[in-house]
Write a structure and sequence with these properties.
globular
Length: 170
């Protein structure tokens, strides 16, 4: 793994609007079956986006995916959601051209690309749509804390929101 190219990618995320990013081991990414239950029984977006369950990989498929990678970049950002997703896609694209041909980004929260998702039809932006970490069964809180980032549950709407994305690299 070329640490210099990865440092350049981390630096580039900040130039593109991230607040912070760090190289992490995929072994520190926690995938649990309960996470998708929170989507199914707690999120009003469940089943309304192709990037949300039940259309996303199961937690078992996500764990298999993590086994295909050794490294990732954990990226902290902030709203608006569409700009955060655009930043993730740009850094994924840059990673591909830097030689990380398996680079794949995981977003934060529901897909912000379309006002309404036609879950019965084809995605109108399949090149740009990415599932979120939680939609794939990743325990974002534990993963973020495992890697030295701060995260907390927001109690009030006016509190500072942090987004976390992941760029899988190999």
């Amino acid at each position: 793994m070329d640490k210099d190219r990865i440092k350049e990618l981390c630096d580039e995320t900040v130039k593109l609007g991230a607040t912070f990013s760090r190289l992490i081991s995929t072994k520190s990414i926690i995938v649990e079956p309960w996470v998708q239950l929170k989507c199914r029984f707690g999120c009003s977006k469940f089943g309304k986006y192709k990037t949300c369950p039940p259309y996303t990989p199961t937690y078992k498929e996500t764990q298999e995916l993590m086994n295909c990678y050794e490294n990732a970049i954990l990226i902290e950002g902030q709203p608006p959601a569409k700009q955060f997703e655009e930043m993730l896609l740009r850094i994924e694209h840059k990673a591909n051209f830097a030689g990380f041909y398996k680079a794949f980004a995981l977003n934060a929260g529901p897909c912000p690309l379309c006002a309404e998702c036609d879950v019965d039809g084809s995605c109108v932006m399949p090149k740009d749509a990415r599932p979120s970490m939680e939609a794939c069964g990743i325990d974002v809180f534990k993963t973020v804390r495992n890697n030295g980032f701060e995260i907390k549950f927001l109690e009030h709407k006016n509190e500072y929101v942090k987004y976390f994305g992941l760029l899988l690299l190999e």
